[in-house]
């Protein structure tokens, strides 16, 4: 068995994935969390790592090949000279491992201790609270025996 790449119709990746899985085809549709700023609010959305493409795991002689192009959401099988281009298992496994590493790493999480590296609070430890727009963050610092909320540049945070 090998991995092959399918191109799906625009904005129909999840539909193609669903219909392929209903037909018992092993699929891989890698997605990553992407942060967007809309109306001043930070939102996280899952987006495909390879927009327009997904991977299927099939035997070259599988009768499913004839059904792939007629599956809802699927546009075509990626190939050369009318032959599907196979990917090695190592390539797909490396993509999966990279996705796991990105998910584990993530960003700065609320409650995490960070060090400020710019401005009046250079070298001061703080507790990250939340993002405030695209380039600012809210942190708590100990100042005059009280925790004070301070708005700082995201570039000033070092974890």
**What is the number of independent domains?**
2
Q: Which architecture of the largest domain does the CATH hierarchy give at level 2?
A: 2-Layer Sandwich
How big a fraction of the residues is strand? Answer: 35-45%
Rg estimate, integer Å: 23 Å
Helix content: 10-25%
Oligomerization state of this entry?
A: single chain
Structural class: alpha+beta
What is the level 1 CATH name of the largest domain? Alpha Beta
Low-pLDDT segments, ≥5 res: none
Number of strands: 14
- Average pLDDT works out at 86
**Amino- and carboxy-terminal Cα gap:** 43 Å
The CATH superfamily of the largest domain is identified as NusG, N-terminal domain
Shape: elongated
